[in-house]
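Bench log, entry 3. Co-assembly request; chain sequences pasted below exactly as received.
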Amino acid sequence: MALNALAIYKQLPQKNCGECGVPTCLGFAMKLVAAEAELSACPYLSPEAVAFLGASTTLPLRKVELGDSSAPVVLGGEEVLFRHEKRFHNPSAIFIRLTGSMTPSQVKDKVKTLEASKINRAGEELTVQGFGVELRKPKDLEIISALADVEKPPLVVFGAVDLLRKAVGLIPRSHRLLLGIKSVADIPAVAELNQALLLPYKWGETLRKLADNIKMAEDEGVKDVVIALGEDFPLGRTLGMLTHLRRLAIEMKEPLLNRPILYIPPQEKDAEQSLHNALFICRYASGVVMDSPAGATLAPMMVLRSEIYADPQKPIQIPAGIYTIGTPTVDSPVLFTTNFSLTYFLVSGDIEASGVPAHLLVVDVEGQSVLTAYSAGKLTVEKVTKLVHSSGIEDKVNHRRLVIPGLVSRMSGELAEACGWEVLVGPKDSSRLPTFLRSYTTRPATETERQIAG
Amino acid sequence: MPDWKNIIAGYELPPTETEPTTSVSFGDLKLGGRRAMPFFDGSPLNIALGLTILPTLDGQPEILTGAFCAESYQPIDCAKSALDSSPDFLFLPLAFELEEGGSPSEDDIERAVSLAHQLTRLSDVPLVVEISAEKRLLDSLLPAICPVLRPGKDWLGRAGEENYRTYAAACQAYDLGVLAQSPMDINLAKQLNILLHNCGIPYERILHDPLTGGLGYGTQYTFSVIERLRLSALAGDGATSGLILINSGEAWSGRECYQGEGPLGNPEERAPLWEAETALAGIIAGADLCALLHPQAHRYIRSLLGEINSALGDDS
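Structure output for the full assembly:
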């Protein structure tokens, strides 16, 4: 993005009407810079301003929205090659492929399996985005109807034009499909259906040919084009091609080849497919296709995806409060740590490994680790005291003894005084928590610990 | 095979002038010497895949121990069967974690040294030894272990900010490469390399592990730190141009790797993939070596690299 927020603001109507969804024009300008808003959201722009801003606020990799317009699945819309330069915006969508010869009840079973493989991690729900259906014969349209029945209409549909037309007729109008054609000869007929177009790109075809095809689709009135590739490509070349296309979009601002890419793997073993898709999640596919909805092969991909698409400028945080590990009682130990997700995961994991149920207080330090937060003055006696008094932990336990991270043993005296609890210094490294906690339950605080605790 | 140049004709990218990363002899392999980020030019991925030999299976999850001869575990037998799958190196983590103030018994040290010694005699592949111990223990450990390692071939660490001088001196005296480790931060990684370099260690004798975060436990940091180290090296910074190692065995420190059922699916099937995809993220970001723990994860990555490379390097 070439312009800063102020330069964009100067071109905006500056009436702070809020119709774009942001209360002020300056706020809207800042969202444009962060690629969190689209220029078209402002209804009062002059044509000159649109022309001036259009070029600099359009994302180098175009964006395509699928599914329900109120909560669309977004493909593309990226502006950097490396996540540390800014961030990746729209996580690679995962589509489960359903092929013909499935009965409606088998389809519904697949939907159920999929529901069961949703993962909840520290407040984030990891899931696949939906289904891709391959229509080989008219009977396969039953799959579309079955999905529409359970309110999971597919997002991608492949097939001959007459079948695609029927499929579009079976789903709600507010739902946008990505239509996969077999041949570019189908472009004019599919353009009439007013959906997004999935354009096949075959291994060996020149990029010139691909650009011509995209141009043809645009001339027929198709606004949204996604490139499909994979099945017939050698793996190394697919990675090379995705990288080449992403660089053409970002570095060269190529106006035709800057489309999101859907990687379609060949049918193969679940584990291999998971590995292949993991590669393309890291290297530039805006969407990938999986045959199996099984958790074992989906979970690693989905967790990897949330890592790669996390905003590197924002530390990953979890909400402050009381977390229970196991089923703690009124006598169980109380520990505290900070709200940096990794810190929390490690500490809670190590407490779990100890087999000792416990209450874990999580202090909000804006997502920093214990030592960083302490050094930065964000982990303070006041904050911990406030959490101890306001979290309700005092009603949950009979004792008044707090285990603090060994790295901040220095705050023990002051903390004991401020919050009125006995303070027990825990290990410096959370990997020692199992040993520590196993002996905790049976032993009283040692003399030294009592002295430290004052 | 269609001609790549013909495919992209008219859509070439402008050439970028880059400094290649340092080229290093590692056993029989030549590593490093990259001229671009992975897949940015058409060159094949030149990655050394190693297998980790655990001195003991104590405290390891069952899914992992089940992959080894768990009945009466002998690390040396495990190494023998590991060598059947032709790893490019062996990785030996030696942990001396003691209660505060304690010191390891002479037996402990002797067992560790003897294991390292046996591994060096088992095959010609390089051995990378990673010691985790307090600084004060190194004075008794290093003189014992250095003489059994092979000069010019094996690597020893992990050198960190607090003990790099000790390692630099020992590795220089015995002509060993230095395994350095920094905590997921490009500046700290670069600084540690410079400190070692100032002690007389050439950059091509430093193997840097920027700390591997398993999936869900910091892969994003590992990924970006490696990408940044690589980009910095390609822009001509010698201090970041050495070899990078990732340790995908770290994937097992997160319980989601191998525990639980339900949404996470069958753990036997999931765990090796969890590790393999941790490894894969590091490799895509630009690591040169990867130490793997689960034999199946090793098979996955080896076959994946074979598949990727089979179509590369023939016409670019």
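The CA atoms of residues 167 and 204 of chain B lie 16 Å apart. Chain B has one domain: 19-315.
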